[in-house]
Design goal:
single chain; 73 residues; mainly beta; 2 helices; 33% strand; YlzJ; YlzJ-like protein
């Protein structure tokens, strides 16, 4: 079976259920992001915005970390 999708294979076929459950969508300063929670921080996996300027923002490059504040997101 071949899947033609922009979604990473790790999200379609996660290795562990815990990894899949740690992925969530948050809004950071009005920009929707797909992040993975890791202890006290979140690793940015994807920018989900439809605004092209959001992809030029150097603060939200995939792979970077944001502090995790549950009440803020």
């Amino acid at each position: 079976m071949i899947l033609y999708t922009p979604i990473p294979k790790e999200l379609i076929f996660p290795a562990l259920q815990e990894e899949f459950q740690a992925v969530e969508t948050v809004t950071w300063q009005g920009i929707p992001l797909m992040v993975q929670k890791e202890e006290q921080q979140m690793r940015i996996l994807r920018v989900l915005s439809t605004n092209p300027n959001d992809y030029l923002n150097q603060q939200i490059v995939p792979g970077q970390y944001l502090p995790y504040h549950p009440k803020q997101y």
